[in-house]
């Protein structure tokens, strides 16, 4: 079965993200979590917090491509020091980024209505897909807004204190 990605569908996903408590919405292109390649869209708003995490299995790379808006992707060492800060912008010079297996990372939207396309190897196992950074507060924690504010200004070589 062929699939198409339509701009009109992106608009619906953006609307869902704006209305969602987490300020993000997902749409999968894979029919099953058992598929060998997982493909999904994620719409996100600038106030959506994504806890820093990694995909620790040796074959679990991840590729992020910005379709609309802009994000900053932060890559950290195991102590939470920023080792890379990359801005991905639709229509800009840098559109995508591939994370190596085991890299601690997060991303956040710079613009309202941002949509990214993620793909990574499957199958997807929700309980083991991600390992969350102990130094980053869990979603819903009172410190999330403070951490997101730090993400916005964090530069290479810095660690949240």
Précis, in short:
The chain is an alpha+beta fold. The protein has helices at residues 7-19, 144-153; strands spanning 24-28, 37-44, 53-54, 62-68, 70-76, 82-89, 96-99, 104-109, 114-121, 131-132. The protein has one domain (7-153): Jelly Rolls (Sandwich), CATH 2.60.120.10.
Structure description:
The protein is of the alpha+beta class. The protein has one domain: Jelly Rolls (Sandwich), CATH 2.60.120.10. It is built from 2 helices and 10 strands; from the N terminus they run H-E-E-E-E-E-E-E-E-E-E-H. It has helices at residues 7-19, 144-153, and strands spanning 24-28, 37-44, 53-54, 62-68, 70-76, 82-89, 96-99, 104-109, 114-121, 131-132. It has a 5-stranded antiparallel sheet, covered by helices on one side. Strands 6-5-8 form a 3-stranded antiparallel sheet, with helices on one face. Strand 5 and strand 6 form a beta hairpin. The longest helix has 13 residues, at 7-19. The model has no long low-confidence stretch (mean pLDDT 93).
Following the backbone from N to C, one meets helices and strands in this order, namely HEEEEEEEEEEH
The count of strands amounts to: 10
Coarse structural class: alpha+beta
Note the quaternary state here.
single chain
Distance between the termini: 50 Å
Helix-residue proportion? 10-25%
Q: How many domains comprise the coordinates?
A: 1
Please identify which CATH superfamily we are dealing with: Jelly Rolls
What's the CATH first level?
Answer: Mainly Beta
The CATH level-2 architecture is identified as Sandwich
Which shape, going by the Cα principal axes? globular
Unreliable stretches covering 5 or more consecutive residues: none
Radius of gyration: 15 Å
Order of adjacent strands in the largest pleated sheet = 1-2-9-4-7
The CATH topology is given as Jelly Rolls
Largest sheet: 5 strands, antiparallel
How much strand?
35-45%
Count of runs of 4 or more consecutive helical residues = 2
Mean pLDDT, to the nearest integer, reads 93
